Amino acid sequence: MRITIALLFLLCIASLAAAQESPPPAADIAHVNAAERLLAFERPSLAERRLKDGLKQYPGSRAIQHALASLYLGDELYNPQEAYDRYRRLVDSDGDDAQAHAGLGEAALLLAGNPDNTDKREEFSKQASGHLSKAAKLAPNQPRPLYLLGEMERTAGFELASQPGGAEQLRQRLIAARRYFEAALALDPAYTDVLFALAETLLQLCDADNAVKHLNAIASLEGESLFWHELMAKASLCLDPPSYDLFMRSCIGAMKEDPRIERQVMAALAKRAASLDNRTLASELIMVIRSVDHAPSAAARMELLKPYIPRTLKEGEERERPVVPEFCYLASDAVFHEAMWAQDGDTRKRLLEQALTFLEAARDIEELIPDIARLRAVANMRLERYEPARTAFERTAELDPSDSDALAYARAMPELAQGRLTVEQFEQFLDIRGVAMQQAERIHQLEGLAAAAPQYVALRAFLGDLLFRNGDFQRALEHYTAALETQPDSVAALLGKGRTLARIGQWKDSLTTLKQIKQSGSEEARYWMDIGERIETGTLKAEAFAKYHEAQHPAQSPTRAKECLDEALALTPAFFEALIARAELATKDKAFPLAGSLAAKALAAARNDKEKSSAHGKLADIAYASNDLPGAASGFRLARELERDNKERIASLYWLEAMSEFRSGNHVKVHSLLREATDSNIAIGPFIARPEAVELIKEGLLSTQGRSFDIAPRVLKGQVLTFHAELDIGSTGAIEQRTGASFDVVLRVLSTPAIDGIYELNVSFEGLPQIGDFSALAKLTFTMKVSPWFGLVEQPVPDGTPGYLAALPVTQAIGELFTIARGVENIETPFLWSTSAAGGTVHLDHDYEACYLKQHDGGGVVMGRIAIDDFRDAANPSALHRPHMRADALVTLDAGTNLPREVELLVRRSRLTEAEDDVITNVMSITLKRKD
What we know:
CATH topology of the domain at 2-218: Serine Threonine Protein Phosphatase 5, Tetratricopeptide repeat
CATH architecture of the domain at 2-218: Alpha Horseshoe
Largest sheet: 5 strands, antiparallel
Structural class: mainly alpha
């Protein structure tokens, strides 16, 4: 919130500076603009440094002083005393500076609310009122001073409420606050802070109808937040008559925003209240849940719930209140946790039985509160009733798909029932499996657990999988075999043993093992069985498959991969998979005749429609890359017609065929293909993030606003993210000029969710530097490529993921920032460490946490592209990225009217864990070995 406040102040600086009699120079405002961009990317400490540097250069700049003072009202650099002192100096030097009065009034208001300033509270409050009133007079078109004055009236009213006659004084203060809020809202109807404050004030004045109206206005502007739902729930009960349906919807909405148990219960209870004819009982239930939520102890909580939960009635006794499932759940939750703390076994059993009684009474609402099924499962498991526990865990997984452990628990119940392991051992297995640690340590701990629970099949199979991925086939085989001795029909163990036997060349035994798998739905099992059968019948030589497998390893260099594939094809000329893989490498080398010949051989060797589709697709890829567009369109169409089940591939082929026709100028055919795809429920959404999509928008073949072609709304729904306008940091004219669409529309089309939540930006940067709009380019590059990685590089490397692959996207994203160096020249700076690439020099200054780029002879500068040349065939040579440096700010482009343009990349030393440090170091060592 406070960062938003600081942003609002910064946005006013330029217009205020323009009103001065002697406007500051452009470089002065450039410091403010740079700080604004840093603040937009939540880097306030860097913004502060930039502003202080600017103030040293321009000590009399009011624009920089305003920006720096407002920065101390933000969350991360929150220092109202510093803001107060700076605004005081601004007011003293110019008593008619409305912005300074507003800032000083807000800082004084914050200081008045600080408990450490009790003795000065009244003084600060008077100053806040005076300066905010002055700001409102000097700038009558600014809503914020009016909003803050309204908040002061409300606060003062509640402080007076406890005094004699305080109720009337509170009402008068609330009326005054309402006037201020309404005046502010008249200036800015979309000011949501004011709308919230006014809605809350109206509720306090018992004007629920108008409160609901303003809350609906907020929902139309920014959606429904948790606070919105809470206010709407209160308002719904204040209406005359109360709207229990609205109350129910608001509580359920709050639950979705904050799915705590109390909110789930409130939502379920609201639903019940809405269905009751007895409004008195409904109100009573709502009051009880509020009291329970604030009960001082478990005993007090149970006392409140007692009238509404099952109990044994005395002879002739009748219930005064009905049994309420929501309250039964709350009671079961309390009893269950009491049982978990019980030291005596008999006491624990009695309490768990009681919890199950309450949970049974709450079963009707478990769809809304999945924790009911979860508690029932755990209680039964603790009572060693494993079959009911299994059923309850499966029900939990059905009701709450986010509970990743529920199915694991369900599958473990038969093992527990047969005494193959204990609950403690199973939960230890889950902990080892889920906690981030080095792979060797994980294997060591799991092998220790396997020794303690040798008959636990899932543990043995999981351990075998880890060892298989590490290439330790013999030990993997031992664990798979041990698992099969306990459970001969285990699919995981049979598959693991079958593929392990295949990898060590025992194909006959592998095929025998794989044929025992009764569940034929396993794609991996079918793959290994197919390979085994081909080797057994002699159509594929085992040595050829071994070479193919070596070529496919992610760490394999392109040169060695080609050698392996050539050797495989020499042994088995009609090896379909090897022909396709070799054709792909030839295409990357732009050896199109060789690639076409290999793909044609693959088509001749294809054994079924799936392989024929793959071969036609590869021929089409080659034609597209060699600019044979009619051949490409024909090939993609043939591949699509042969594809039967894979809808994602069908969607990709539709898109590729459409792009081939588009490049041929056949726009009518493009329109027909896209419509045919959407009418056939083929989701082409993931493919609109390609550069060609921008051209389709420009030509009117793909609309994001529903004006030209109706594919867009269906494609974008649920798949495309909106880039928020408040992060606008520069001119976007170049993007709009290039695409013919608004900048926000282009971002919305070009940014789609990819694997693991990373946002890939697939857009050509070639035209932007030529136009000269580096700001738009920096915005696209940093926001969509680099920024999302900051929180992800610190995540543990997934099991089985080679280190260089885990680090590759990070280094690639950093490298993307440096592509904007084209067009930058003659930048001289001191440096402590540097390296050269593509005719340029990169300087890193560790002391000042800054990185500068120096351009030589118009060559491009690329930094941070570790191990990318070998995998992505990057056009520019890579420069070595220092392992402990990571881009953690943004590109700032303070472009003057004349060249050269300065590009400054602010960075800081990354806080890498030891494991992550090893990952980056691994990448460097692999790269250096290859370069040697």
